[in-house]
Amino acid sequence: MVPSPPRGARTRARLTVERLRDLYPAVTELRHENPFELLIATILSAQTTDRSVNLVTPELFRRYPTAADLAAADPAAVETLIKPTGFFRAKTKRIIAASRKLVEMFGGVVPSNIDDLTKIPGIGRKTANVILGAGFGVPGFAVDTHVIRLSNRLGLVRTKDPVKIEYQVCSMVPPEEWTGLSLRLILHGRRVCIARRPRCEECVLNDFCPSSTVRPKPRRTRATVAVAGPPSSRPVPTPNRPA
């Protein structure tokens, strides 16, 4: 059972959407040219930084531009290419298995719905929602460790369960904002609301955040955040409700 949002959560959610929209673009930092590249890059991003992934994917995709190419790849060659991302043997198995499933089930084409995406090895709800939002422009609220931390600190939820967080936040935020809010929470979590020492004095949310450790400061105007990757531009207001 999914609990009700905390008191005042809807107002805080609205303010969070508005202020982070003024501060960050709604894009992923993973470089990609198409949904297949985004799918593979997202799998590789587990337990490493997007920067590390971006260092290896250009050559990976040059050698293996399609799911069929990667499905037939020599694992040893792939391991060498992706070694800087860490856990490279396990990740090699995952991206090759995912590519084979794409070929077997979907003709090598990445599906654009959450039910089919989660049938692919290595793709859970978080990764599926990233692919939907950043790859297809379909609303999806991806819940990673940053989103879990910030949604609780901001008093939007009182749970660490990713599916419950997804359901609760999506119930308070319009579908067209799901992807952008998730991506912006991730960026804000990396830059300001960090895990051990959050920079509350720099935070544009500090006047209403229940976890703020400082008095409110004057709000900043829009900042330029250097990120790579094309923004999603075709939101479709179809909810991806958890089962």
**CATH superfamily placement of one domain:** Hypothetical protein, domain 2
* Run of helices and strands: HHHHHHHHHHH
Q: How big a fraction of the residues is strand? A: under 5%
Helical percent range? 40-55%
Give the CA-CA distance, first to last residue.
11 Å
* Strand elements, count: 0
Architecture of one domain in CATH?
Answer: Orthogonal Bundle
The value of Rg in angstroms is 18 Å
Which structural class is indicated by helix and strand composition? mainly alpha
- Low-confidence blocks of residues: 223-238
Q: What can be said about the biggest beta sheet?
A: none
Please characterize this protein's 3D structure.
By secondary structure, the chain is an all-alpha fold. The protein has a domain at 35-136: Endonuclease III, domain 1 (Orthogonal Bundle). It is built from eleven helices and no strands. It has helices spanning 9-23, 35-44, 50-63, 67-71, 75-82, 88-106, 114-117, 125-136, 145-153, 162-172, 175-191. α5 (75-82) crosses α6 (88-106). The longest helix has 19 residues, at 88-106. The protein is elongated, with a radius of gyration of 18 Å. The N and C termini lie close together (11 Å).
List the helices and strands and how they pair.
Elements (H helix, E strand, L loop, with lengths): L8 H15 L11 H10 L5 H14 L3 H5 L3 H8 L5 H19 L7 H4 L7 H12 L8 H9 L8 H11 L2 H17 L52
Helix pairs in contact: 1-11, 2-8, 5-6, 9-11
